[in-house]
Amino acid sequence: MAEAFLLGEDPTGTPRVISILSSLVQRAADRNDSLAAGRIQSPPNLVARAFLSPAKPAISIRDYLDRIFLYSHCSPSCYVVAFIYLDRFLHFHPSLAVDSFNVHRLLITAVLTAVKFMEDRFYDNAYFARVGGISLAEMNYLEVDFLFGVRFELNVTPIVFTSYCSILQREVNLLNPQIPPRMPCLPSEEEPCSNNCHNKQLTA
Question: Transmembrane region positions (predicted)?
Fold first, then answer.
């Protein structure tokens, strides 16, 4: 199953979902960076401004996700749930484009939210702020903004979880064309995914 492969470890001992998610998000950020470079930028709205970094972080998306995993000690499933939350957030705020200036703050907040929802024991916001390289005040603010941004829709059913694993599995097939594609397991009509087959900004 896609879940078993994604949540398993690569030869370095890191869950595969981290490298796959970082590749997908990196591609989205690079695409939006390129689009932004060729057009006049309008002032960011309140939601976009909350996650906007004053400068492009020096750490790569992959290294950032690795750092979060190393210090948070959360389960690999949290990264799938964080991806679901990020997708929901972007669905409710379609004017927000994931780029190099906001992606790190979006990721640390999505993972923090997933960890609090999924894990019985977890580190507090002060700890996550240090891991993410931001202040505690900013971490608290981003968490509240994110929760309101997803309209507190934090529940993730097994069907939705599996459907997003299939999305991430397709990313594996893009990175490794020699791997035979797996049949996607999409949500049923009774329980569709949060935004009618995923946010195109991330998966296009």
Answer: none
Q: What six digits make up the tokens of 12?
A: 């370095």
Residue 24: Cβ-neighbour burial (10 angstroms; 0-12, 13-18, 19+): buried
| Full 3-state SS string of the chain | CHHHHHHCECCCCCEHHHHHHHHHHHHHHHHHHHHHHCCCCCCCCHHHHHCCCCCCCCCCHHHHHHHHHHHHCCCCHHHHHHHHHHHHHHHHCCCCCCCCCCHHHHHHHHHHHHHHHHCCCCCCHHHHHHHHCCCHHHHHHHHHHHHHHCCCCCCCCHHHHHHHHHHHHHHHHHHCCCCCCCCCCCCCCCCCCCCCCCCHHHHC
Does the predicted model carry a pTM greater than 0.70? yes
Place of tokens 């049949």: 183
Domains, in order of start, for the chain: 14-34+44-155 (1.10.472.10)
Scan for tokens 């990721």, then name that residue. Answer: 107
Q: How do residues 79-135 score in pLDDT, each as one tens digit?
A: 999 999 999 999 999 888 899 999 999 999 999 999 999 988 888 999 999 999 999
